[in-house]
């Protein structure tokens, strides 16, 4: 601990670079240095967190992006595998990229426009040495598809409406090019309201909507976006009801949903979330209310308003990192609830594994038609597992025991969930 505290007193990162380079040389000579490496690495990571204002602690060292990338590169070269450290490294990397982007924007605003014949001078902009990581796809570059006209509203009464601090959100039924559509309208309530999330949601709907296939996945067809005054309008396929309404209707009629009905829904949802996982998209609020279903049991995923994009090479694509604590009570993973109980706004957790837990709760609700609010805490996980153990179908027991594991590291990825149902799904529907 004393050595880590000493590192925080350095007024620049040059000494840390030299120490890390020395450790790498010693390690390459075959000496066992694991304990020393972990002490220095922890101190170096704390130094970067404080210097870049990720954590509230003042140190003398001024921001130096190039130097910080070099420190990250050396830390990675030392073979750090401890999960808490890799999540912190990813958060630092994201902060450096954000700071770098902000500085570039300021530089562009302040610099005079070059003359048409002036050639750029590479010496004026030295390349920043970044940790050698695979490039990330920038979803903000997706060109939003605009709709110019042709929307006819069925009624001026919203089918759904909610007011947030900065926006009012409402959904209307309409018609577009002869098709029944839903129009989700965000109306700014404050001039300073940030539309970034809204436009990200447009991009998610558009990209996944272009992959929509009612036979193989649960993506909603997306037509496009248009703006009108203070409003941003998202135009998408219309589906009559959400899964929660279906579950309520079955419960009121004292009916159960059979495995013949559920297996195709489970299969489509897992395939869809697995594809989103491969694209680096994580929903963040999976629940029956955010799944639409028609009378033919066609299932669709909706509401990407708090979804995030993350390609994380340092954590094996598991989106470990510092994330906002948000979601819906009764469906949030235990690790998110723990953070909220502590009064935190953000915490380190794996969004991918949190999404798996939320889908597990949703599946359990579809299987039993019961509500499991308060069962999703660490303290009550044994109650949740008790319910799972009584399920009628062995395949569902096995799958949900894995999905609802209190330890996020023990939950499978979405693509691995298919192994739990592929055989029973194929066997069931090859005979029908």
From TrEMBL:
InterPro entries: Kinase-like_dom_sf, Prot_kinase_dom, Ser/Thr_kinase_AS. GO terms for cellular component: cytoplasm; nucleus. PROSITE patterns: PROTEIN_KINASE_DOM, PROTEIN_KINASE_ST. One of its GO terms (molecular function) is protein serine/threonine kinase activity. Residues 100-127 are annotated as: Disordered. SMART domains: S_TKc (SM00220). This is Protein kinase domain-containing protein.
């Amino acid at each position: 601990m004393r050595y880590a505290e000493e590192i925080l007193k350095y007024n620049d990162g040059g000494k840390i670079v030299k120490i890390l380079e020395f450790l790498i040389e010693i390690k390459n000579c075959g000496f066992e240095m694991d304990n020393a490496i972990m002490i220095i690495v922890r101190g170096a990571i704390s130094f970067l967190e404080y210097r870049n204002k990720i954590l509230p602690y003042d140190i003398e060292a001024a921001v130096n992006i190039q130097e910080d990338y070099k420190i990250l590169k050396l830390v990675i070269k030392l073979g750090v595998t401890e999960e808490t450290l890799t999540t912190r490294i990813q958060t630092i990397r994201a902060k450096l990229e954000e700071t770098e982007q902000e500085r570039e924007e300021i530089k562009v605003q302040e610099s005079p426009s070059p003359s048409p014949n002036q050639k750029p001078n590479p010496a004026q902009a030295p390349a920043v040495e970044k940790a050698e990581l695979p490039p990330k796809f920038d979803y903000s570059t997706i060109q939003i598809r605009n709709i110019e006209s042709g929307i006819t509203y069925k009624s001026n009464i919203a089918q759904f409406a909610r007011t947030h601090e900065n926006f009012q959100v409402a959904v209307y039924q309409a018609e577009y090019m002869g098709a029944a559509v839903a129009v989700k309208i965000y109306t700014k309530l404050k001039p300073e309201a940030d539309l970034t999330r809204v436009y990200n949601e447009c991009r998610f709907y558009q990209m996944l909507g272009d992959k929509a296939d009612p036979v193989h996945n649960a993506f909603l067809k997306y037509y496009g976006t248009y703006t009108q005054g203070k409003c941003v309008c998202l135009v998408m396929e219309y589906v009559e009801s959400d899964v929660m309404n279906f579950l309520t209707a079955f419960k009121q009629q004292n009916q159960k949903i059979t495995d013949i009905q559920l297996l195709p829904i489970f299969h489509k949802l897992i395939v869809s979330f697995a594809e989103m996982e491969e694209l680096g998209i994580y929903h963040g609020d999976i629940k029956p209310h955010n799944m639409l279903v028609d009378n033919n049991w066609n299932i669709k995923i909706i509401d990407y308003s708090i979804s995030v994009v993350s390609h994380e090479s340092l954590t094996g694509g598991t989106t470990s990192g510092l994330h906002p604590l948000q979601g819906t009570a009764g469906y949030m993973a235990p690790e998110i609830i723990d953070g909220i109980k502590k009064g935190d706004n953000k915490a380190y957790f794996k969004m991918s594994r949190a999404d798996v837990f939320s889908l597990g709760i949703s599946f359990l609700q579809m299987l039993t038609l019961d509500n499991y609010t308060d069962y999703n805490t660490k303290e009550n996980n044994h109650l949740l597992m008790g319910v799972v153990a009584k399920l009628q179908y062995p395949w569902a027991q096995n799958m949900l025991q894995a999905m609802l594991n209190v330890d996020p590291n023990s939950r499978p990825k979405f693509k691995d969930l298919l192994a739990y149902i592929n055989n029973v799904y194929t066997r069931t529907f090859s005979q029908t």
